[in-house]
Amino acid sequence: MKRLSLYLLLITLLWVSVASGGTRKGTIMMDFTITSGKGQHTQLWIPYPLSDEFQRISNVRIKGNFDRDGIYRDPDSGAIYLYAEWNSPSDTPRLSLNFDAEARERTVKEMKESGDIPVEVRRYMRGNRFVPTDGKIREVAEQIIRGKKTILEKARAVYDWVVENTYRDPGVRGCGRGIVEETLARRGGKCADISSVFVALARAAGVPAREVFGIRLAKMAEKDMTGGYHCWAEFYLPGTGWVPVDPADVRKVMLVKKLSLKEAEPYREYFFGKVDKYRIVLERGGRGVALDPPASEPLNYFMYPYGEVNGKPLDYLDPKSFSYSIYFKEIK
User: Fold this and answer.
1) pLDDT for res 6
2) Given a cut of 80, is residue 10 above it in pLDDT?
3) Pairing assessment for the beta strands 188-189 and 167-168 based on DSSP bridges
4) Does the pLDDT value for residue 15 go beyond 80?
């Protein structure tokens, strides 16, 4: 408890020192309704955001007709989440999670490489069932980094390759499935697909990397941002720390603005080491999350809310059985 209190104090002091560069601030209101859960054993897991150097989360309010709830952490992935349970509710299960968020641009002003990769970071170099690094993936990675010596050179080469060899497919459902082999084969996808490719190729190239799962903050004073979930990535540079990258947003800008690779060069440069203030982090590296209390199976990635009725997973993109809304209201 003392260690957590000290961490929160340090984050607060750091925030005060750096937040003068302009922030986006508002109240985020999340409302969840599980229509199919009435009279049934119902469980709900929701990513739970925390403050860090670039965002401040405060005034958290949780309400609902649940029988029990709690905040849990998966020790392997580090995912932190709100859990709620309804035993056999006579009414439709409902829950609201509201909080105030203030975010600033995430930026690394100078990338210096020195020293070794810390022991606690080396886990982000390993492949697994959800982030494969062998076979075709390793073959592609080795071709990409041929002649590159440093971690920074390798990370940049992987980033450039992903930007140049993938595309945003607006027909993909949600943020995509995040299955690396599928995206490499078809080259198209959305943010979870493209970010997962970057992470897998980076790890296969010997660069520590992880996905970042979050949600975009509205640029308007008030807006429904239910469709604003977004995934980007980070790589670890010894001597600097974690560096944000967002190749998926480069491809999105290219699609929306109808830009060529040459015309999109300013966006490519910006999203290597920076991401804008219109987003907050929900989870980092949340792949293969083993939820507690146990879900039916580990989650491929944990960004959307996840629910089960009588042990059967709900489709988080199907409003008929599992509906939710996320609304943003600016705080001036």
Assistant:
1) 44
2) no
3) parallel
4) no
Residue 315, φ and ψ in degrees, nearest 5: -85, 110
CB proximity list for 61: less than 8 A, separation 6 or greater: 96, 97, 98, 99
Domain that holds residue 88: 2-105+291-330
Tokens of 268: 């490519």
pLDDT tens per residue, range 196-229: 999 999 999 999 999 999 999 999 999 999 999 9
> Strand locations in 35-114, DSSP E?
42-47, 55-64, 68-73, 80-86, 94-104, 106-107
The average pLDDT across 236-263 equals 97
**CATH of residue 296:** 2.60.40.2250
Are the C-beta atoms of residues 154 and 313 closer than 8 Å to each other? no
Q: Are residues 247 and 325 in the same domain?
A: no
Domain-embedded: residue 264: yes
User: What percentage of the chain's residues is helix, strand, coil (to nearest 5)?
Assistant: 30, 35, 40
| Res. 243 pLDDT band, cuts 50 70 90 | very high
131 shares a domain with 169 = yes
Contact, 178 vs 196, CB < 8 A? yes
51-69: pLDDT as tens digits:
999 999 999 999 999 999 9
Residue whose C-alpha is closest to residue 170's, from 261, 232, 286, 254 = 254
Tokens of 237: 């540079």
CATH number reported for the structural domain that contains residue 186 in this entry: 3.10.620.30
Identify the residue whose tokens are 């293969």.
288
CA distance 122 to 284: 15
Nearest to 163 by CA among 232, 111, 212: 232
Does residue 183 sit in the same domain as residue 272? yes
Instruction: Mark whether 86 and 158 lie in a shared domain.
Output: no
Chosen domain end from 276, 299, 321:
276
